[in-house]
């Protein structure tokens, strides 16, 4: 693929901006943009989100190890050097699938070793905590704190995935999600999306997997003449959002309860927002196609996740281990998967990487 950077043609991955220490690595593909030289104000927000995720990675690693310790997994391995099968019968909790997932994640992280010859497990004494040093002043405590809630569900998952204390279901546990969506981390996500898209009065915007908090935030920015359409599979989250809109006298928002993978886009929008939703899509390809089909020519799609797999400075398997307690979670994507999928689908587009967590796509035909 050929890229145009500031008017020059280059191969797709030939260009990596060489920014001074501490600045984001902002790669641009087929994008005429001066932000390579002058960092945009909104990049501070993307950097802030990246730091929070990197810091959390260390916290999760500690928690993950302590949980295995607390529930006796490492002790059994140390004493008996069991195979995975033997270990599962020795750990006295019923959810064997979850315990197996724990062991596989611990192997992948290098905490445990599986011997190739006889498949026995042993502790990896050479394991070292790799410490990442984010800029602590940029950290957002409430993002870290809400993960404490998620990791505390470990003990219930040992009993069964359907344990009543595992309150992460978008449909049943909308009240918990309403709180989880109300963090500084999520606020920064929304304002970063709004700034990158340059959302203004009169815009038409579609928000995919809008949840309960974003509808009021974004529709206030385009009111009264614009149109905000928010779709979400959770009727309860949609109802909460509708109540908020009504209390604030906002009339330019239309909210729909539906699975976005099953929609047929009719309206064309200036912007499509997909924040912290793509990792729940059963078919990311279908999701991406529908989002692109919903855009006008030169319309923009912003995707923000906690991170993209191919750019993040974190242990992806740790996040996936805890996220998998939510049955809707499918997995994090890499930026190249998104770009390659859009190319395969035949769209003409420009793209821009925003830190490790953001991807801006502009549809050009
Ligand atoms: C982590 S929340 C993010 C909410 C919102 N985008 C925000 O940034 O505040 C993920 C949302 O995606 C919704 N969701 C998941 N899968 C979906 C699907 N297939 N179609 C529509 N919404 C979906 C969930 O109900 C949930 O509200």
Write a brief caption for the model:
The chain has 365 residues and is an alpha/beta fold. It has a domain at 1-36.
Walk me through this protein's architecture.
It is a single chain. By secondary structure, this protein is α/β, with parallel strands linked by helices. It has a domain at 1-36. Helix content is 39%, strand content 17%. It has 13 helices and twelve strands. The strands form three sheets. Strands 3-11-12-10-9-6-7-8 form an eight-stranded mixed β-sheet, sandwiched between helices. It has a two-stranded antiparallel ribbon with strand order 1-2. The protein has a two-stranded antiparallel sheet with strand order 4-5. A hairpin with a 3-residue loop joins strand 11 and strand 12 (358-363). Helix 1 packs antiparallel against helix 8. The two termini are 17 Å apart. 38% of the residues are buried. Mean pLDDT is 87; it is low at 1-25 and 32-37. S-adenosylmethionine (SAM) binds at residues 170, 181, 186, 189, 209-211, 213-214, 231-234, 237, 259-261, 275-277, 280-281, 328. S-adenosylmethionine binds at residues 170, 181, 186, 189, 209-211, 213-214, 231-234, 237, 259-261, 275-277, 280-281, 328. InterPro entries: Methyltranfer_dom (IPR025714), SAM-dependent_MTases_sf (IPR029063). Residues 199-305 form the Methyltransferase domain.
